[in-house]
Amino acid sequence: MREMTLEELKAREAELSEExxxxxxxxxxxxxxxxxxxxxxxxxxxxxxxxxNEKIRTGATGRQTPAGASDAKKA
Length: 75
Known about the structure:
Elements: H1 6-28, H2 36-57, H3 67-74
Helix pairs in contact: 1-2
């Protein structure tokens, strides 16, 4: 997931969010075959959002460690 571009991650986030919305409706109507799938989807969505935030914080330049984080604390 970390190798995906920011645009791909945003598209995946939208896809998972829509899927989760549909699952919530099906859960409310007791029509979802596997209720645990909603949990898996919710966690996948959280993982995608985490990677998006990491990429935004690092400027999506591919840096592994946020070098600006220690500089920001000093200021």
